Amino acid sequence: MANSSGLLKLGTLVMFVSMLIMSFSHGGQAQISCDTVDNDLFPCLSFVLNGGKVAPACCSGIKTLLSLAKTKTDRQSVCSCLKSVAQSATDGQLKNAAQIPHLCGVNLPYKISRNIDCTK
């Protein structure tokens, strides 16, 4: 049960970052795997689960992922990787994830929600 709970919570975080990187627009071929997303965002998991202070490695991971997601296809791939898992996130997890952009100094042009459309 702990493993599926942790995966669910990681999915919430990934949904947040998926929305974050979808805000940047370029053209091209996807090269970002779900493993890359998981690895870059893993340092954010504690904050999504428990709140508190965002680890510097979390902000670094988000910025790294943003720099990798140069194409629309990249952003769509990242969004699709874990969207289905993120749909089961708790409201508290989404609230914590929504705070991360501000705390990391990253601006998002939209509200983080379960209703993100990965095709846009």
From TrEMBL:
<dbReference type="GO" id="GO:0006869">
    <property type="term" value="P:lipid transport"/>
</dbReference>
<comment type="similarity">
    <text>Belongs to the plant LTP family.</text>
</comment>
<feature type="domain" description="Bifunctional inhibitor/plant lipid transfer protein/seed storage helical">
    <location>
        <begin position="34"/>
        <end position="118"/>
    </location>
</feature>
<dbReference type="InterPro" id="IPR036312">
    <property type="entry name" value="Bifun_inhib/LTP/seed_sf"/>
</dbReference>
<dbReference type="GO" id="GO:0008289">
    <property type="term" value="F:lipid binding"/>
</dbReference>
<keyword id="KW-0446">Lipid-binding</keyword>
<keyword id="KW-0813">Transport</keyword>
<dbReference type="InterPro" id="IPR016140">
    <property type="entry name" value="Bifunc_inhib/LTP/seed_store"/>
</dbReference>
<keyword id="KW-0732">Signal</keyword>
<comment type="function">
    <text>Plant non-specific lipid-transfer proteins transfer phospholipids as well as galactolipids across membranes. May play a role in wax or cutin deposition in the cell walls of expanding epidermal cells and certain secretory tissues.</text>
</comment>
<feature type="signal peptide">
    <location>
        <begin position="1"/>
        <end position="30"/>
    </location>
</feature>
<dbReference type="Pfam" id="PF00234">
    <property type="entry name" value="Tryp_alpha_amyl"/>
</dbReference>
<protein>
    <recommendedName>
        <fullName>Non-specific lipid-transfer protein</fullName>
    </recommendedName>
</protein>
<dbReference type="InterPro" id="IPR000528">
    <property type="entry name" value="Plant_nsLTP"/>
</dbReference>
